[in-house]
Model the fold of this input.
Amino acid sequence: MKRSRQKYAVVVGLILAVSGSAMAEEKTAQLGEVVVTATRDEVPIEQVGSSITVISAKEIEQQQKQTVADALRMVPGLDVVRSGGLGTNTSVFIRGAKSEHTLVLIDGIQMNDPSSAGGGYNFANLTVDNIDRIEILRGPQSTLYGSHAIGGVINIITKRGDGKLKAFLSAEGGSFYTAKETAGLSGGTDLLQYSMSLSRLDSNGISSAGARYGNQERDPYQNTTLATRFGITPTKNSEIDLSLRYTHSRTAFDDGGGSGKDDQNRLTRSDDLYFRTQGWLSLFNDIWEQKAGVSFADINMSDDDDNDPAHPNDLLRSSFHGQSVKLDWQHTLKLHKVTTIVLGAETTEENAKSDTAGFMWSSNFPEKYSRTTGVYLQDQLNLFDAWFSTFGVRVDDHSKFGTEATYRFTTAYLIKQTDTRLKGSYGTGFKAPSLYQLYSSYGSQDLKPDKSIGWDLGLEQGLPFLKTRLGATWFRNEYTQMIDFDMTTWKYTNVAKAHTHGLELTAALQPVDDLALKASYTYLETRDDISGKQLVRRPKNKASFDVNYSFLKKANVNLGLVYVGTRYADTANTQKMKDYLLVNLAGSYDLTKNLQLFGRVDNLFDRQYEEVAGYGTPGIGGYGGVKVSF
Done:
């Protein structure tokens, strides 16, 4: 054990040595990139006072990630936890906040599931198909995004086609009897733009209950995903955008984690549909821009289990259905080069229902509804092209608990002579009670929303050698009147309080044009203010290191390391989980202009580790494939 810890310490030390004494803040790409999530308007990333990370399609391809959850693992301040193999429940924690405190969007569509107990989003089945980039915004963002954005926002933006028709076919296979086939095409004219992809993923998987505990039965997984996006540009100052994503998945899993939890009959199926259409209009020489849209999400999931000789009393038939519809209208007024006003209104209706029947028992949650209507206003200031600030306010009205107001302030100051950037933000957030928390037999219609206050301060410094950017961000978040389950009353109540604080360090350097190195380190302290204990599954220390090298104008090699420190598996802090280091290697080679070979090795050193106590994780896995472009 001591030797293993020393090995991890050496690796972390090497990462920090490469990173320097003060590493870059949230974004490790070069300055000048435009982002939209931070202000709901296109702005260069160096003008953003919030903490934001962008994952590009190129990075996803270089690392050969299959799921969004895996692509997120290297983001500073963010932790990914999966309960088993592919397709099992996958949660994301931003700066120690609850998983349901993260708002997840794809092309403006809210993906959070109204039928889940906390209203969060399960990343289990979200693949990287047709994704152009992912923007991760940390800290309370309710002023622009309303409920769910109490801890942060993950905004997924899909590809928009242009130019001549392009198409591709790819196929890969590898460990755990895994196979994936993907086809896609894209293109566009001045009038019509289009992109679409269709993929199928099959894997025999691993034992979700953990092979190390004597569980031998593997849990297969299947995923079929269709992703499309169309744009119509009838005039130079107007366009219509349509986005659709459909996923069907089938996941076998077990009755829990640990010894004796194998179950050969338990199976979940899900059908997720997300759709949005949006219109954009620019008037008066781009002074006034309008966006109006409607989003629709429909999430169906079943969980079935038949009895067998090992589980004679097992019988489960359950179904869950969640649906949300949102109407929104946003105005961007560029009144002067000094100020830009963003104001808008949106209304969202959620509904959910579920039915569950077990061995000699049943439970029914009849269909329930809620509506939230919000209006927001934000002023963006640009002073001397060096000082950029925003101040925003928002008022939301919920059909059950009433009105909630939030606000947020951000600022960024550039010292161009020294290539220095100072940044900071302060804001509040809220999360409405879920339908289950309000209306189930365990719920209460007297519940109030979770609330948060959060701030961060950061420094970024560019250095003239090796194209280096270094920096640091210190943050703190406080959560009050959080909804938690009271074991005494067996009801949800507003009893929980917690706070988190920490430091995010990242660095980027490029010694030569074809070699890029990135590193990050997060120190996180979490505390349940009622019990005084640390929050579950939040590691104090996390580090990542990524090296990408392109050579011969045909080949690319990527090496990625993720270190996750010790954390507690239970609220009483009696069970500490071991730290672990994962090393992943990926490479590709272009045989011709239209033919590429690619391969990767996950968990290169075959480390045994757990993300949730008792649940299995994959060992070393090798995969290879071919991609044909037209």
User: Anything to note?
Assistant: The longest helix spans residues 2-19.
